[in-house]
Amino acid sequence: MVSAKPLLEFRDFSVRSDKSNPDISFPNPWNWTLAEGKRIAIITNNSFLRYQLMAALADLVPPVSGEFLGPCVISWPVGG
Fold first, then answer.
1. Residue 32 phi, psi (nearest 5)
2. Kind and range of the H or E run holding 53
3. How many CB atoms lie within 10 A of CB 21?
4. Residue 79's pLDDT is what?
5. Residues 6+ apart with CB under 8 A from 23
6. CA dist., res. 26 & res. 67, Å (int)
7. CA atoms within 13 A on the CB side of 16
8. CA-to-CA distance for 6 and 60, rounded, in angstroms?
9. How does 35-73 read in b/e, with b if 16+ C-beta sit within 10 Å?
10. CA proximity to 72, closest of 33, 42, 44
11. Residue 65: which H helix or E strand, with range?
12. Residuewise pLDDT in 10s, the chain (80 residues)
């Protein structure tokens, strides 16, 4: 049975995507939800963006805008 309440939610969420310029972030902030039992993969070749995204989700750095909500497990996949 799938829960009606999302487990993962992004509201106007954006992080830095350029190490040399703190003003560069997502062109369109994320506004989406993910329900229980669903999975998503975010793939990028930008290592700084990967770091920023994982650090923001782990609450180690603040996002440029918006917020991330969710009592869920976040992991980094192995492989490519």
1. -155, 165
2. helix 47-57
3. 9
4. 41
5. none
6. 14
7. 13
8. 23
9. eeeeeeeeeeeeeebeebbbebbeeeeebbebebeeeee
10. 33
11. strand 65-69
12. 555 666 788 999 999 999 999 899 988 999 988 887 777 778 889 889 888 988 888 888 999 999 988 766 666 654 43
- CA–CA gap between residue 33 and residue 6 (Å, rounded): 6
Token pair 């939610």: residue: 9
State the Cα–Cα distance between residues 27 and 41, nearest whole angstrom.
Answer: 19
**Which two three-digit tokens encode residue 1?**
């049975």
Do residues 31 and 12 touch, judged by C-beta distance below 8 A? yes
Residue at 15: amino acid letter: V
